[in-house]
Amino acid sequence: MYYNPYPYFVYPNYYPTWVMANQPTTQHSRYLAMPTNRSPFPPINTNKLKTSAKRIKTIMQQAQLLTDKIDESEQFAHDLIDAAQQSNKTEVEKLIASTGITIKFETTYTPDGLRIIFTESSCCKLTLLLGW
Questions:
Q1: What secondary structure does DSSP assign to 79-117, as a single string?
Q2: Predicted local distance difference test score (pLDDT) of residue 121
């Protein structure tokens, strides 16, 4: 819906002065085509956003475990790429879980990369894309 901050009046020859258009009177408000003082959105509540931000930190720590293991171990990186290129999903998930990740994750892969989606209940997700 398009919001016009300036009042638009339905009747063509009825345009009061600017001062009168901004006065909250019932006499002129019945001629407005669009309401100008009502918000289409509910009141702002930041609790859910703050909770998601707090939980995403946990997910990022879990993703850090995986990326640290890939960075530190040449053998682990080789085994992960090899299992993904052979479409061995159980081996890929076993390797990822062996890094110490405790939250739920989903993996998909292509011949040139790996996608891991970390999920924390229903509040937030983190997608990690790694290419090779």
A1: HHHHHHHTT-HHHHHHHHHTTT--SEEEEEEETTEEEEE
A2: 80
